[in-house]
Design goal:
14% strand; Spore Coat Polysaccharide Biosynthesis Protein SpsA, Chain A; 52% helix; alpha/beta; transmembrane helix; elongated; Four Helix Bundle (Hemerythrin (Met), subunit A); transferase
Amino acid sequence: MKALVIAAGEGKRFRERGYKGVKPLYSLLGLSLLERTLLSLREAGVKEVVVVLGYRGEEIKAKIGSGDKWGIKVDYVVNERWFLGNGISVLSAREFFQNEESFLLTMADHIWDLQALTRIAELKPNPGEVYVGADYKLEEIVDLEEATRLQVEGIKIRRIGKGLKDFNAVDCGVFHATPYIFEILAKAEKEGKYTLSEALQIMAEEGNLLAADIGESWWIDVDTPEEAIRAEQILLKFLPAPKDGLIARYINRRFSLFLTRWLARTDIHPNQISLISFILCLGGAFLFGLGLSPAGGILAQLASIVDGVDGEIARLKFLRSAWGEFLDAMLDRYGDGILIIGMALGAYDGNNGQTVFCWLSLALLGAPMSMLIKEKFRNIWGQLYLPEKEGIWANLLLGNRDGRLFVIMLAGIFHSPLWGLAILAITSHLLTFIRIVNIRKFCPADGDIN
């Protein structure tokens, strides 16, 4: 699939607030607005993008380049009449899309939930139709006064424009269009109408403008530096993973998101953060072994917090990879085992060898079971295993990695590494039993799975 991105405007409201750069290159948590748009389109299945340039377009082209570094092809069109309106910018790219069945169209200053973008991309407009991403959650719109409003009946948009008084949705800045839109834009230009909304109103009157409901997905139009701050808040809000355990969800994320907001502006890679988390585990184990259990426990909890940052950075900056996921999992398993061994060394007093060995063995055996169960569940049934659906009592066992490292921290602070080993051993195997029972209820009858 191909996409058309409009990056031709001057960003007047940014400039009025003192911003001297080009708006599409405004940095938002480590990526420019345009980079975030291009990478979002790539995640939605787009392979080729045409960017329409206008105001200071050469700066944008020099920064973005050919798109090879992201695995997409980026071409450029220069619209010398960009100041007339965004409809003229869309029309200037006509030759690139005239033979396409359909294509995505969006602006460089919009940010969306990937689910919304994917949903619109999967729709198939008939020849002559255009789908408009429509948000019906009017109470959640950041700047309703500036939003392009839609009057929708069923799925057909009857009216579109910023000045509508009677409306029930707003345009979220992404469209699934057919080449017919260029005919309408050319017609609108002859009538002295230069904006995309004016052209789409003509299509609405023909009955060819359709609403694509984005449901509960989010989006934001970044028109001012203040809205950029709001966009950062939204991006960070939706970073936590649905598979988070109790400690990660209510404690760790409060700290990890702070670190992520700072680190996103640097060039650090998620894999480097995974390695830092592992090194913290090594340090914690070493301190436990020396008898400095409080310091060891604190390093273990810090490793747990940092362990959330790698995934947050990967999702935020589109750096997710199969290798990164594999490396993180391997380092986590080794980190857990080394911490448990360090606790055992700290718990040994010369007379309790058998007891320490017993709890050490059980804890080492149980520690990887949480990940193993979730990974096997995902591989077999193609779904994430979500700990939050297990219920509060299962969550309170703290058997996930965030919970285990929290237990290690408490054991260190209270100078009780042996008790910590015992708790890790008991809770990990008890949670494994609970999950086996829960999965058996979910599992199809014997013979349905190879």
